[in-house]
């Protein structure tokens, strides 16, 4: 079955682009956007790190730029684990999901606290995908994915030096 590309408008002026179930890019209208003006676009690597891409006036062109960048990566599910923590107010035991990839990449992912391990295991995967745009798998000993390098069509890409 071929991969599925789809987009979702989450906020007015913002479109998220997905490849299969992975968030691969974001298209944003600037605050002072006028029709025909440039759109801000960014590529999202497998860890969830964003890289700016050249501005473009067309959603279609922006989507092509995002998919071109995504083609340079191998997207893998984040490995997550159910751990036990304590509620700060009354020190009740809570079950939380821990994602070392999101933690290492500084991704703003506030893990949800669950009342029981069963509830955590039932909702962790959906909650992680909803908050980060990246699917996950539950494992006993999760490892962080390697950090992303900017795609070659990114404005932050630097070719390696050759001597």
Summarize the model shown.
The chain is of the alpha+beta class and 163 residues long.
Description of the molecule:
The protein is of the alpha+beta class and 163 residues long. The protein has 2 domains: 5-70, no CATH class; 78-138, no CATH class. 21% of the residues lie in helices and 33% in strands. It is built from 3 helices and 9 strands, in the order E-E-E-E-E-H-E-E-H-E-H-E. The strands form 2 sheets. A 5-stranded antiparallel sheet has the order 1-2-3-4-5, with helices on one face. It has a 4-stranded mixed sheet with strand order 8-7-6-9. A hairpin with a 2-residue loop joins strand 2 (14-19) and strand 3 (22-28). The protein is elongated.
* Broad structural category: alpha+beta
Number of β-strand runs: 9
What helical percentage do the residues reach? 10-25%
Distance between the termini: 44 Å
What characterizes the major β-sheet? 5 strands, antiparallel
Written as H for each helix and E for each strand, in order along the chain, the element string is: EEEEEHEEHEHE
Number of helices: 3
Mean pLDDT: 85
How many domains is the backbone divided into?
Answer: 2
Percentage of residues in DSSP E strands: 25-35%
Question: How do the strands line up in the largest sheet?
Answer: 1-2-3-4-5
> What is the global morphology?
elongated
Query: Unreliable stretches, pLDDT < 50, 5 or more residues?
Result: none
Kindly provide the radius of gyration, computed on alpha-carbon positions and rounded to a whole number of angstroms: 18 Å
